[in-house]
Please model this.
Amino acid sequence: LEDPLRAIEALPGVTATFSVVPYFFVRSAPPGNFGYLFDGTRLPALFHALGGPSVIHPGLVDSVELFPGPYPVQYSGFAGGIVLARSAQPSAVPHGEAALRATDSSALLDLPLNDDTNLTLAGRYSYANPVLHLFARDMDVAYWDYHARLVRRWSSDTTTTLRVFGAHDLLTDRNDGDHRVVYGVDFHRVTLRLEKAGKGRALSVETFGGWDRSQVRGGDVTVRDASTGLRVDALQQLVKGVALRGGASAKVDQYRLDLTQLDDPNARDEYRKLYPARSVGVVGGYAALELLLTPQFVMRPGVRVDVYRSPGVSAVGVDPRLTAEYRVTPRLTLFSSFGVAHQPPSSAVPTPGLDPALGVGLQTGVQQSYGFRIKLPEQLSLEVTAFQAALFNLSDDIGQARARDIDPELLESQRGMGQARGIELFLRRSLTRKLGGFLSYTLASSQRFVGRSDAPSAYDRRHVLGAALGYDWGGGFRSGVRGSFYTGVPADVAYLEAAREPPRTRPYYRIDLRSEKRFAWGDDNYLSVVLEIVNTTLNREVLRASCSAYSCKEQTIGPITIPNLGIEAGF
Model:
């Protein structure tokens, strides 16, 4: 409950693949079509493996916003939605945090070097295996992350920010003495941003570089991606009630493939064909208006154009987007959105470096949603949203697996189409209150169409429920509980007549607990003893099921639980 990024898992529209890896289906869009951004910089994942903490120290995060459908036009490259995390401002006085837990340790130090310069350092290192082996003896996990930020204020309206950060994750499974990589990802980022703000105007110029590595196929294949780019964003107030946003960006990626550990020559040829070593680029720009038509009615129309280039192939994406809000009463607001977004081919999960060649063109997402937001008594708020989404030319070999059950002659690389519709409910009360929390519910269906086949998406979970509750008992004692529930996914079937309506795996639920006793002195000094337990219910999770005409066989994992007793301190 204390990590702002962790709340994303329980928000409406978000469907877990399974709980040991940090990937989600969002309004039918597979993980590879959903983006994670920190101050506009792309991340391969938000969390470490095995339900671990976020890859960005919580003390560095000021706000987190989920855009499950059409997202702001200044961002691009994802046919689904995005999570946008924004960094906290530098502290005006020395500030520090440290945590020592049973599975990892972390620290943050925010130092004003002088009146105009601030240095922030943060990092985390894990040693979780002794705890993990109590519940999963054949699994090993290692993760760490780091973050350094230097902010220089040159004048009242001009600031530069240099940021260097990255993370490492390695989850392995021992089988007959061999370590098989289940999840292995490294990423590193360097950004340099110049920001200039004045009355009614703002300008941001950023250059960035990145290096990513992924281990796939049990660790036999390693892929790397080195990237560099430039981004410019501007805001200009034209007249009262009318603001213009515009910008441009360019990025180049160099992909490399290491197959030296792969013994199968046929598999080598297949990887070289799907993921050849290459350099690819994208150049784009956008323009958007913010129109305050009346004090109650605001519209934000915009359009973005991106040109993608891969060896011998190019493609253009034109993405119109429109959002509108109408405040009917001080308590009731209506909202709607429509958007188109394009994306190059992607792997089923966002595996850095493992993006297929441009091939037969871009993936396209078309989304629309309508809803209302109402303020209720007792500082409660309720948001209800109905949505529809369609994904075209989709490269989703996992989600389309049930459609291939119907027609085994379909190639795994064959593009398909996805569609989803549903209703989302979100009831919340601020967690900063004595009693606070939220309740989210999603009722949705997700289909895949490939060739002449159509079937539910492999992760079509009809009902998804998430909840969190925190209570301040006074005297420095605070407790929190978080729960999640989702119904099962379609099973693999060996008989074609059931492939369009296959049996479902068992539902899964999980309850996490957190209790804290805080000792405080002075204005900002504190020492806390914290107990956290993930999956206190010790439930096993069904990964998949294979069904014949007579029976079903399930593949499960767990129970994986992570108890953590730790000490946190800050000044």
Observations:
- The chain is about 5% helix and 60% strand.
- The mean pLDDT is 88.
- The CA atoms of residues 340 and 366 lie 5 Å apart.
- The helical segments are 129-132, 265-274, 401-406.
